[in-house]
What does this fold into?
Amino acid sequence: MHWSELAIELTLMPLVAFVVGLAMVLMMRKIAARLQRRVGPPLLQPLYDIVKLYGKRTQTSHGMLHEIGIVMAVGGYVAAETLLPVPGMNGIAEKGGMITLLYLTMIPSLGLALGVGQCANPNGSIGISRALTAMLAYDIPLVIVIAGVAIHFGTTNLVDVIAQQQAGGIATWGAVQMPLLAIAGLFALQGMLGKQPFEIYVAPAEIATGPMVEMGGKFLGGLFVMQCFQLYTASVLYVTLFLGGGENWIAFLAKAFAVLVIPMSIAFLFPRYRTEDMITMLWKWPVVLGLIGLAFVGS
Amino acid sequence: MTDTEQFPVRVEQPDRNGGNIFSRVFDELTAFCRSRSLFILHYCTGCGAIELPPAMTSRFDMERLGISPMVSPRQADILLITGYVSVKTLKRVMLTYEQMGSPKYVIGICSCTVNGGMYWQSYATAKKLNDYMPVDLYIAGCMPRPEAVITGLRQLMDKIAAGEANGWEDYYRRYDYYLGHQQRLFGETWQTPTDVIAEARHYGLFGPETLGDHTRLLEQHQAPLEALEMQLGLGAPDEVKA
It folds into this structure.
């Protein structure tokens, strides 16, 4: 591939991810509103929020690490988008693969931990310690699921995984071949998005939104941007592993949004668990399901 | 808080009489987005709080106007104060207000914030909220119904979109006036962690009425903030062991 084509793809992929992510945030808020019998926010509300936050006159910075932390949080996801193949664009996905992607999706939490640490707010510290604990909790089932998929398809290359699923049709989709792993993956997805019942680190009524408590203006704006990327990354990863990626953009977006409806619909019907309950739950059921699923992989 | 003297800070002043066409378009876009996305911080120690849940939930649904509740002063745009504020709670209101990021707006709900309401004769309540901080909007009533709250918020949105809701600038321009009323209520030794005068200079809002008799009094009493001593447990070390 010529370098200019690659440069265009590497620029377009995060931009597309951001725009789709904005729509996903809107969908999340609309689902919440409809479940609570409200009208919900207008079409461009996520964009208004971000523009307003970047346009605040006061930008309270707590130091250099605070600012770098936000850049890491957004940058980790921007890097992850270039490893996620979308229809027509592969970026550097062939050189990366699942393991690099898994590693990159952890960077935002670590960046946030650095940034929040400098704010020196007790609520923020509690929040970020909970966020890292949550990461520990959902990473065990996630690693099992990703290992299972890699063993089944005989590769960690996401482009190959998609090609194999699309060549064989629906019968070769990950979700059909490995239903137990797909269910375990849904648990991990819920934890990865940090939605109720696993919303332990935001917890507005308990620890005042945890990591976000000292963030105002552009810092909170950066986290809103991060949320767009987070929703996109999680759902596209699931679509790639289990639902055969996208043959074209329409099918791709339909699958990505449909996957997100599941955790969103669960999220706004439940309160949240305590930290230890979340770990117990995530280390028990999805891990057992995932291990049984792993036993059937390849047979 | 960033020390504004250590870093060279250049503040762009919005040019209201024209200027570059791109910056004007951008300013209008920002003003529009500000009016359509408002995060509210509730300060509800008075009785009007009971009218807010219906305004937020399914019956009246504030979110369709882009208004949503937030929990920390750093994140919020609107400080919404319902009902009477006693002298003790007003101190907390002032601390909260000064931590919020500008542009910030204050809404006083219920008659008690307007003129003391039924607590007019009480020795323990602050009567007029706009003596202590600039209030952008009052919603009168005892208590105002959710329709009135929503109507008030829509009026504030219109004011913000037109660039008229600039109460926060008044706090910096006439800090001496507001500080005087605060000192009258809280005593001469009253001080907050925020250096309002330095912030006024930072925003380019330092005016002839920023300094005065009351700020001179503040300078006499002002002590630098010291971190609290780190301590585990609530009592003395011996009690913790037992």
